[in-house]
Write a structure and sequence with these properties.
The chain is an alpha/beta fold. Helices cover 44% and strands 18% of the residues. Strand 2, helix 2 and strand 3 form a beta-alpha-beta unit. Helix 1 packs parallel to helix 2, helix 5 runs parallel beside helix 7 and helix 7 packs across helix 11. The longest helix is centred in the last third of the chain and has 20 residues. It is globular.
Amino acid sequence: MAPSFSVVVPAHNAERTLAAVLESILGQEPAPREVIVVDDASTDGTAAVAEAAGALVLGNGRPLLAGGARNRGWEAATGDAVVFLDADAVPQPGWNAGLAAALSEFPDALVGGARTFAGRSSWGWVAHLQVETPYLPRGGPREVRFLSSYCLAVPRDAPLRWDESYGGEDGIFSAQALAAGYRLVFDPRVVAHHDHQRSTFRDLRRQQNRLAYGLSRIGAVQREGLHKRVLARAPLHYFALVRLLFIWRRVRSIPELRRPFLANLHRLVLAEWMLGLDAVRYALRRPPLRGQGAESFR
């Protein structure tokens, strides 16, 4: 029998996208054992949307942030695997089936899913292109050294827990999993569409600040190689625009991504330089490895 799975959705003010996320999960086969929405001190209708969809809702009286909310849902889950899914990640057709296949083919491994995206504005495209092209649904399942928390399946009995923070907590989690002997598998058959609402330059800057924070705090413990540790301390590659070459290689054969990349190339250049400035700031004042510290990205 295929392993059963529980879906845990940490949600903070997520009423805009949550209904679509839950409708997609619950409308596909095989059905999850349960869907648990952890309402992390929302001030909008997140809890009501989740209850109307039939999800089990756990409310946090105080913010536990993304990592803490995932831990709370994990404790309540009963499936063989726990699948953590962001509240703005809308599973595409075949998501449940692809997940079930991956769990059967890679028992006792951590499995991460792929993503698609589409920008609503020029700066929205930049926000997507700058960070999400490594997770496009291309190729076959493969072992990796890092999995994004955006969509991540974990054996329920794994002796791991998330750091109660937001920004880099998935890098810490991946490093802990590798140290504990778990395989990390990226499976492009498990695809969700990232429907974030970042559309302005200000939205982009908030994303960059959190990204630079996370990359800096996990630099010393990440398991992706010496070059990542060096770049976390000396992030000069942003100013040299090296990353744009890799992004171009990933999108050049995909017309719906190649066109916005070329149309927004001048904005991407500026965005890389701005991200580099954030990375330098955090390299000089590295955030604590544990806990959120004084930073807030909401």
